[in-house]
Amino acid sequence: MKLLLIEDNEKASAWVRKGLEEAGYIVDYAADGRDGLHLALSHPWSLIILDIMLPGMDGWQVLKTLRTASNTPVICLTARDSVEDRVKGLELGANDYLVKPFSFAELLARVRNQLRQHSPHGTVLRVADLVMDSARLQATRDGVPVALTRKEFMLLWLLASRRDEILPRTLIASEIWGINFDSETNIVDVAIRRLRRKVDDPFPRKLITTVRGMGYCLSEKESGGV
């Protein structure tokens, strides 16, 4: 899942980004209100974390403008602790409000709660005998637990949520690692091989297919797993 952090404090931004990335999310960021609004409107995000005190354009204006075009969940961060400010944020369309200073554990819990509430397909995804629970980061095949790392779970979720689509390596690299694909980099191929060992190799029915010259596809149809 891709999150956008709009925060001008460099130290706070680095701390939040590091924690969220360690929790398995892909995080992009902006340090200016105008840049943040441009990013927020230019790409699909699972959630936006928005500071209120920003240069260029304050968080209230960013939120107000964003709500004219997007229903992406927004968690506002602010040092202001007054009831008036909290009410203003909620009236402008904020989904949650967190006062600085805060613990990262609380922010992470609120992020997960918003993602659960706004997941378009709920938290459980099923493809053939594969069942994935995004809230618990758990996967099973034919009722058998499949032990996955966070990145492996994210990769499998991406493939499963876009079943029957051929996903190019460029898209996978961007969505899962947040990087521009380099033809000299085999990070996607290595990750797919590791995923197959866990998800396909122990089971007679193969779900993940390599489409030569194009990318990878996960399908309910019987796959050769090439």
UniProtKB/TrEMBL annotation:
Pfam families for this protein: Response_reg, Trans_reg_C
DNA bind region: 122-220
Domain of life (superkingdom): Bacteria
Ranges of residues in domain OmpR/PhoB-type: 122-220
Keywords annotated in UniProt: DNA-binding, Phosphoprotein, Transcription, Transcription regulation, Two-component regulatory system
Record's keyword annotation contains Iron: no
Residues bearing the modification 4-aspartylphosphate: D51
UniProt keyword annotation of DNA-binding present: yes
Stored SMART domains: REC, Trans_reg_C
GO molecular function per UniProt: phosphorelay response regulator activity; transcription cis-regulatory region binding
InterPro entries: CheY-like_superfamily, CusR-like, OmpR/PhoB-type_DNA-bd, Sig_transdc_resp-reg_receiver, WalR-like, WH-like_DNA-bd_sf
Biological processes annotated in GO: regulation of DNA-templated transcription
Span of domain Response regulatory: 2-115
GO CC annotation: cytosol; protein-DNA complex
NCBIfam families (alphabetical): cztR_silR_copR, PRK11517.1
Protein name: Putative transcriptional regulatory protein YedW
